[in-house]
Write a structure and sequence with these properties.
single chain; alpha/beta; 6-stranded mixed sheet; globular; repeat; signal
């Protein structure tokens, strides 16, 4: 019998038979069409097939990367760059993937893509054929607006697909010996999901979202994972290297049958395991045998009922916040409840709302799972109720794995990330992690995520040799000055740090990891307008300036652009606070008129220092980019040295007859990374990517103290 496979599209069916005689038929009536300027990051769907129109091969539709593209690239022009389609358009398959630490620019198929140091989300493009077992949407959901419905023939009712719900449950049982000296763990084995029900951690299976314009859509989210929590699971062991904290609290049992209690509690041995110092078990609070398992489906966890009210929230604390919640067995049931109370109090103190802070929670143990994301709850009351229902995962304290997950998956448009709000992660740790956090934290920081650590009952001096990664907090946080870390001596005093933590999280001026090389500078262009340049070449220089400016995130709070033109004299074309949008800056650059005259580069550097950089904001990096085509009539060394001493990072770009010794004197050390020379104006474009890469490399090498 021939093997067969089939695809199901909303409004389209696909079937094939393998072996013997077979047939393939397609009914692609509902492929959504997108415009040339649509960027992958604006589409929420993690995987989709779309149709590109003709005419997308244009420099105004920018592309970043090669083979793997940053998500703010034009989808259709990226498809042309990769050779999937040509300028006539056509169908493409787009798959969202994790962000990369670097994207390489190249020239391919008539499209020049640009390089980028990093971005938090990427995508792949391939031939527009459906993959086996995947449901594709006929309606694409955009992050900034309602779903855009494809103009096509009306669907038949039977063509609509319903989302497949799966709620797999797995039970684990553990028995403690009567002597209390050995614990046997029976690990639960999760069922293997079928293609129709499988949920991927990094790229969830696409589903169709259709919005009726006449109604208000209910808030829904697609879960990143499907997880079943079983409240009947008994205590698991942590490795012997991880400390036993409760031994000193155990009261000696006097005689047979007497009970052992924890930290002054009166819990009897009938519903709590008696721990001994040689078991290696910490803070076990198992539920009594026979208790029914409690399980929550992914829909219950991540797709809440319609909210009763959507709060505006605290406008003075607009942050996108993820808490990494410790669900390891070392914490115990009692302290897990204290942790939930703490998170509920934080949610209340923050003032959750659409115009203020938004908060999601990821719980970690052996692995990690999203309890709810940023857009699941829009007010503090609903959020607190949801926190109260969270059940403990158990396992080890794998913080590093959880941080990697959050960096790659949590702060996405699909999960409610707003882009303009700082990304903040607060990691709750009982004692110390059982894996390494340094590398995962570094990648998260470089993605612009602000990492806070709240450590409870940290290792004592006698226990520090058991910690896998010494000084793990300093290796993880954004700055090592104490602002990003809070150490709490006891879980029972955790409530005291609610207000201090909220105050720090909401202090957006101090959230330095939100600052990246693309959004944290005052960039001043110092442009040679001397007679030797000429009108045509001057326009080429302005295009070079515009190409650099395009790569930065421009606003009054992000990167700002200013410009000075010089000959014998100097002219302020526009200062840093003149324009606050990218389009206004690019238009202003285009309007700069050619001056013509001599070449006094030294005087121009002094003028830029006084008229531009003296008015730079304290939290901005001051970057000067000077373009000249000849030797200066005056000295450049003294003005350049003064600018360097005032914190100006200087890049020099020389063309044609520019003097190499002057370029090196103008440039910040090391001058090989800050000075460039090109033989003719038409080759200036070659240094756009290299210049931006050097700016970002220098930014990322700053000390974290």
């Amino acid at each position: 019998m021939a093997a067969a496979w089939s695809y199901r599209w909303h409004g389209a069916s696909y079937m094939s038979t393998a072996g013997g005689l077979g047939s393939i038929y397609f009914a692609l009536t509902d492929v959504p069409q997108i415009d040339c300027d649509v960027k992958a990051g604006k589409i929420i769907n993690p995987e989709f097939i779309a149709k590109c129109p003709p005419g997308c091969q244009d420099v105004k539709y920018r592309v970043y990367g090669t083979d793997i593209y940053a998500s703010f690239s034009s989808v259709c022009n990226a498809a042309i760059h990769s050779g999937i389609i040509d300028n006539a358009g056509g169908k493409i398959l787009v798959q969202k993937v994790a962000g990369h630490s670097g994207y390489r620019g190249s020239f391919s198929n008539g499209v020049r893509s640009l390089s980028l140091p990093r971005w938090r989300e990427s995508f792949l493009v391939s031939e527009g054929k459906p993959r086996k077992g995947v449901t594709y949407p006929s309606t694409l959901e955009y992050s900034s607006s309602k779903s855009t419905t494809v103009k096509s023939e009306p669907k038949k009712p039977e063509q609509d697909l319903k989302a497949t719900k799966s709620a797999d449950t797995a039970n684990a049982s553990e028995k403690a010996s009567e002597q209390g000296n050995a614990v046997r763990k029976e690990h639960q084995t999760p069922p293997v999901p079928t293609p129709a029900t499988q949920m991927a951690t990094t790229t969830p299976t696409p589903t169709t979202t259709t919005t009726d314009p006449s109604t208000t859509p209910k808030p829904t989210t697609t879960p990143a994972t499907t997880r079943t929590t079983t409240a009947a699971a008994a205590a698991k062991t942590r490795p012997g290297m991880h400390r036993v904290r409760d031994i000193g609290q155990i009261q000696a049992a006097q005689g047979r049958g007497q009970n052992t209690a924890f930290r002054g509690t009166s819990t009897s041995a009938s519903n709590r395991n008696i721990l001994r110092s040689n078991t290696g078990i910490q803070r076990q609070d198992p539920i009594a045998a026979g208790s029914p398992p409690l399980s929550f489906s992914s829909k219950e966890k991540l797709n809440p009922k319609p909210l009763e009210s959507i709060s505006q929230g605290n406008p003075n604390c607009k942050v996108d916040l993820s808490f990494l919640m410790d669900g390891s067995w070392s914490i115990g049931k009692r302290r897990f409840q204290l942790q939930k109370q703490f998170l509920g109090n934080v949610a209340q103190a923050l003032g959750i709302g659409s115009a203020g802070p938004l908060m999601g929670i990821v719980q970690y143990g052996d692995d990690h799972s999203t309890e709810f994301n940023l857009k699941t709850y829009a007010n503090s009351k609903d959020l607190r109720n949801a926190i109260e229902k969270i059940t403990q995962k158990g396992g080890l304290s794998n913080v590093g794995k959880a941080l990697s997950f959050v960096n790659k998956n949590f702060f996405s448009d699909a999960n409610g990330n707003r882009g303009g709000a700082p990304n903040v992660v607060v990691v709750m740790v009982d004692g110390w992690p059982t894996d390494r956090v340094e590398e995962a934290s570094r990648l998260a920081r470089e993605s612009g995520i602000n990492i806070f650590f709240v450590t409870i009952e940290a290792a004592a001096e006698s226990e520090k040799q058991k910690v896998i990664e010494p000084n793990f907090v300093d290796k993880a946080v954004c700055r090592t000055n104490g602002f990003y870390s809070i150490n709490v001596p006891s879980w029972f005093s955790l409530h005291k740090v609610v207000q201090p933590l909220v105050k720090r999280v909401c202090d957006t001026n101090q959230l330095v990891c939100s600052k990246t090389c693309l959004n944290s500078a005052d960039i001043g262009f110092v442009i040679d307008g001397s007679s030797s340049v000429g009108t045509s070449n001057f326009r080429t220089v302005l295009q070079f300036v515009a190409n650099i400016s395009k790569e930065f995130e421009i606003s009054d709070t992000d990167t700002r652009i200013g410009a000075v033109q010089y000959t014998y004299e100097q002219r302020l074309e526009f200062n840093f606070d003149k324009y606050s949008t990218k389009q206004d800056v690019l238009s202003a650059i285009k309007r700069i008129s050619y001056w013509s005259g001599g070449t006094s580069t030294g005087a121009a550097i002094s003028y830029a220092s006084e008229q531009l950089f003296s008015k730079s904001k304290p939290n901005k990096r001051k970057i000067m980019i000077l373009i000249t085509d000849g030797r200066s009539y005056d000295d450049v060394r003294v003005p350049a040295m003064a600018a360097h001493q005032n914190g100006v990072i200087a890049y020099s770009i020389g063309v044609a007859w520019a003097a190499q010794d002057e370029l090196e004197a103008i440039a910040t050390d090391p001058d090989k990374e800050h000075s460039f020379f090109v033989d003719e104006f038409d080759n200036l474009y070659r240094f756009v990517n290299q210049l931006i890469q050097n700016i970002c490399t220098e930014f990322n090498s700053q000390p974290r103290n």
